Amino acid sequence: MRTWVLRIAVGVGLLFATIPAWAHHAFEAEFDKNKPVHLTGKVTDMEWINPHSWIHIDVTNPDGTVTNWMVECGSPNIMLRRGFTKRSLETGTEITVQGYQAKNGTFRANGSSVTFKDGKKLFVGGSNPDLPDEQK
Amino acid sequence: MIMRARLALFIPILAGMLWAQTPQWNPPKTAWGDPDLQGMWPGNMGVPLQRPESQGTRTSLTDAEFAQKEARAKQQADADRQSTAASDSVGIGPPSYWVERGTPTRQTSLIIDPPNGRLPPLTAEEQELRKTARGGKGFPGAWRGEADSYEDLNIYYRCITRGVLGSIIPVIYNNGNEILQAPGLVIMRNEMIHETRVIPLDGRPHLNSAIRQYMGDSRGHWEGNTLVIETTNFTDKDALGSNGAGYPGDPGHHSADLKLTERLTRVDAGTLNYQATVDDPKTWTKPWTILIVLKRNEHYQLLEYACHEGNIAMSDILSGARAGEQKESK
């Protein structure tokens, strides 16, 4: 049994009810829908790179060892326009990620859902710096 | 009396309609006397490339259709708020807050000619080519599962380009467009994928036809207040469409003979009509034209999109396919 936190989600059928929207790449080209992951860990780095940002987190495994996972997010451009700034995610913040592991078996996953320890969602939409004030 | 009253009401309405159909607005001029098109003109996602057949030759949504579209947009905005607030659902698609939604408009399709708003049929030659290209694999369009080489993935996946038209057709993000002008030059910048075209207006000839470029070779001139840009010298390794790569419903591959004619007209202080005619007789049986209505937004920032350097997904896709093969061979 590999020791990183990897749970087979209950009700897998429900998970695939959402029709994937096109991002830069098709989900299924990169990630394995048969490998859902549920990760909890502390942020070690945030890579603001296109076409997708990557959050790095240290996940402590049940045997005490630590695995550094990379979690794929949206493009920095859209994240900024959705109100995400460099202050939104400090190093050391504990977050929980639900997603799917990369097909190549590395410690990379997509971040379908990213929440803070208190359950609050990471990405808070609504503030769009590109909108004229009257449209905000 | 009633008749006269009706007529009295009718005439100003008719006059108003005629006034609305003959735009008298003249754009400001640059210091050297050209019409001034400069500024940020981000695209607005949401008008389909092709019109549903049921809408025939109608270019504008009915009140009922528009109300339905607005209701759907509201529903989507609510769903987006849910996904950033309370919901804990996990799907295989990206979270909805990754994407831009756009503001609903009444335009029924980007294609305005042919009058049915639909792509003309492909030539027989192009139909055959799309079947037989690359030893029968077809052109790399939407991902179909193969990843033997990076060349199996389209040039958008590879962060190369979306081509001239794909760079301006609004998609789910990075819809920024900026126009800058200098004496004898117009500069068109697109956020996706950080394209810049420097377009001479001095009447110089196109590049030698042996020189082929993803973004072609553009030459511009003014026809009244309209900037006309003619682009040739394309490669046949590119594609046309909302992602320049031939996703379902997109125009897809074109030949190197493509001639693209763009017409940019500021119709009021805040609106720039962008029309582009695709003339590629090797690929489509007739030319076709799109209209994108761009709205000025001086608050928009054109952000950098250095796509290739951070394209971790490419190596993940290729190595993921190899891992899959190993698993199958065991």
Ordered list of secondary-structure elements with their pairings:
The complex is a heterodimer of chains A (136) and B (330).
Chain A: H1 12-15, H2 27-30, E1 31-47, E2 54-60, E3 66-72, H3 76-81, E4 94-102, E5 108-110, E6 113-116
Parallel strand pairs in A: 3-5
Antiparallel strand pairs in A: 1-2, 1-4, 2-3, 4-6
Chain B: H1 2-21, E1 39-40, H2 63-85, E2 111-113, H3 124-136, H4 163-166, E3 177-182, E4 185-190, E5 195-200, E6 217-223, E7 226-232, E8 239-240, E9 252-253, E10 259-268, E11 271-279, E12 288-295, H5 312-329
Structural write-up:
- The complex is a heterodimer of chains A (136) and B (330).
- In chain A, 38% of the residues are buried.
- Chain A has a 6-stranded mixed sheet.
- Chain A has 136 residues and is mostly beta strands.
- Chain A has one domain (23-119): OB fold (Dihydrolipoamide Acetyltransferase, E2P) (Beta Barrel), CATH 2.40.50.
- Chain A contains 3 helices and 6 strands; from the N terminus they run H-H-E-E-E-H-E-E-E.
- The longest helix of chain A is centred in the middle third of the chain and has 6 residues, at 76-81.
- Chain A is globular.
- Chain B is α+β, with helices and mostly antiparallel strands and 330 residues long.
- Chain B has a domain at 110-315.
- In chain B, strand 4 and strand 5 form a beta hairpin.
- The interface between A and B is large, with 61 and 55 residues.
Helix count of chain B, per DSSP? 5
Strand pairing plus helix content of chain B: what structural class? Answer: alpha+beta
Unreliable spans of chain A: 1-23, 124-136
DSSP strand count of chain B: 12
Largest interface: A-B, 61 and 55 residues
Low-confidence stretches of chain B: 85-89
How many discrete domains of chain A? 1
SSE pattern of chain A: HHEEEHEEE
CATH-level-4 superfamily name of chain A: Nucleic acid-binding proteins
> How does the overall form of chain A come out from the CA principal axes?
globular
Largest β sheet strand count, sense and barrel closure of chain B: 6 strands, antiparallel
What about the largest sheet of chain A? 6 strands, mixed
